[in-house]
């Protein structure tokens, strides 16, 4: 079996507006720019699927990445812990070799650390990590991945 590639993306920089629910926060102009730039780099991993939180800022990030892959909105990614995110990954079709997951901190930061046993000092908005896994998606678990690239906007 060939390695699987997981690209974990923290949504790009979002703004705050009084009275606006957290899930409705839009990206800032800088966040939009960062998401487009990240997409230029992430495209080389030829993702077959994008798993995305339902929030406005994550959906906008996923769209601005400009990837040629279907986007599945997964409610379980919003306000998720690493175990929740692993549950989403484990449901992924085994035929898909490369997946992008667009979510929120602290869950995405903790997921990268758990999968790779890497010490990551920060995972700011717009950051992404590329992880190789030598196990099927259904067997993704702490320690089963290798961090091959980390990018900050």
TrEMBL record:
Transmembrane segments: none
SMART domains xrefs: PGAM
Record Pfam families: His_Phos_1
InterPro entries noted in UniProt: His_Pase_superF_clade-1, His_PPase_superfam
Domain of life: Bacteria
Region annotated Disordered, chain positions: 15-35
Protein name, UniProt field: Phosphohistidine phosphatase
Primary gene name: sixA
């Amino acid at each position: 079996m060939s390695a699987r590639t997981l690209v974990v993306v923290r949504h790009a920089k979002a703004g705050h507006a009084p009275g606006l629910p957290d899930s409705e926060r839009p990206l800032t102009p800088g966040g939009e720019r960062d998401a487009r730039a990240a997409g230029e780099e992430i495209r080389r991993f030829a993702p077959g699927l994008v798993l995305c939180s339902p929030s406005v800022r994550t959906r906008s990030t996923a769209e601005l990445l400009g990837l040629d892959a279907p986007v599945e909105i997964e409610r379980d990614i919003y306000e998720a812990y690493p175990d929740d995110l692993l549950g989403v990954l484990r449901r992924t079709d085994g035929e898909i070799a490369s997946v992008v997951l667009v979510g929120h901190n602290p869950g995405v930061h903790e997921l990268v650390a758990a999968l790779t046993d890497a010490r990551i000092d920060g995972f700011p908005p717009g950051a992404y990590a590329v992880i190789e896994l030598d196990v099927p998606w259904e067997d993704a678990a702490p320690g089963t991945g290798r961090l091959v690239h980390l990018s900050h906007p």
